Amino acid sequence: MLTPAPLITAKERDEVRRKRSAENLDLMTKTLTKEEQMSSKTIGKQLLLMLTVGMVCLAFALSMSAQVQTRTSTTSHPATVETTVERGEVVYVQGNDLIVKMEDGSLRDFPNVPESARVLVDGREIGIHDLKVGMKLARTITTTSTPKTITTVQTVTGKVWQISPPRSVILTLEDGTNQQFTIPKDQKFNVDGQMVDAWGLKKGMKVSATKIVEVPEVHITHERQLTGSMPPPPPAPAPDQPILVAVAVAPANPAAPAPAELPKTGSSLPLIGLLGVLSLAGSLGLGAIRGNRAEVE
């Protein structure tokens, strides 16, 4: 059986495929272009709407600010200053981690101390990596509290269009618009120089009202200063000392030897005189004894 010949050649087939690919690409491009155009139009509409709303809000805000005048003032009062000092000793420092032993004996951990932290030591600022174990640290915290009073004064002027005492009033403002206001408790209105409450208002009256609000607040500032001192130097090692110390004893002075002969200044004359005195005393004694015997006989 004979095989039918192809209706197109391979070259033509490739050409058709190429055109088809080009048509598909063109179709995809047109589709994307339409979607982009639609997206651009949508974004443009949204931007226009946002711009319109913003202009309306701005006009409303300007109108309100023109109708209700607001003044704000701040009054400062004498400040109080409180100083607190915390002291401690560095017991551990590794990298950016620090542990300090406080005066009360508690341990306080300071992990991940920032590189910007500084300690004033001997007039020089040092960082976390310069701290040493044994350093004394002192943190002085100065707290300044300044009382302030924020005073807000709101003033509105208009003609009474409708009054619903004691809750609300509708005023016709200077620009011809009507605006409703809530009446605060004990609010007074100035009508031709006289102060009246909500019950004294009548339609057509030209009034002005002033609302004063005072809000107290305290402005607090903290000033921290961290100082330190280097650890004391280690004690000097003791010098080598012997266990026993020998003490030399000086010999005693020997007795002086007796002189072999009298000194040249010596003489026998005193001895002879002593013998003579003894002989005289003996002869006198014998004479006295003989005299006593003769008287007895």
Percent of residues in beta strands? 35-45%
| Radius of gyration using CA atoms only | 62 Å
CATH class of the domain at 149-217: Mainly Beta
Identify the overall geometry. elongated
- Characterize the biggest β-sheet: 12 strands, mixed
- Would you tell me the overall average pLDDT? 75
CATH architecture of the domain at 149-217: Beta Barrel
Question: Roughly how many Å apart are the termini?
Answer: 226 Å
Bin the helical content. Answer: 25-40%
List unreliable stretches of 5+ residues. 1-8, 55-66
What is the tally of helical segments? 2
Q: Which fold does the CATH topology of the domain at 149-217 refer to?
A: OB fold (Dihydrolipoamide Acetyltransferase, E2P)
Q: What is the SS-derived class?
A: alpha+beta
Task: Please supply descriptive tags for the structure shown above.
elongated; disordered N terminus; OB fold (Dihydrolipoamide Acetyltransferase, E2P); 12 strands; alpha+beta
Provide an overview of this structure.
This protein has 297 residues and is an alpha+beta fold. Among the domains are: 19-55; 80-146, OB fold (Dihydrolipoamide Acetyltransferase, E2P) (Beta Barrel); 149-217, OB fold (Dihydrolipoamide Acetyltransferase, E2P) (Beta Barrel). The protein has helices spanning 10-67, 269-296; strands at residues 68-76, 80-94, 97-102, 107-110, 119-121, 124-126, 136-164, 168-172, 178-182, 189-191, 194-196, 206-229. Strands 1, 2, 3, 4, 5, 6, 7, 8, 9, 10, 11 and 12 form a 12-stranded mixed beta sheet that branches. A hairpin with a 5-residue loop joins strand 8 and strand 9 (178-182).
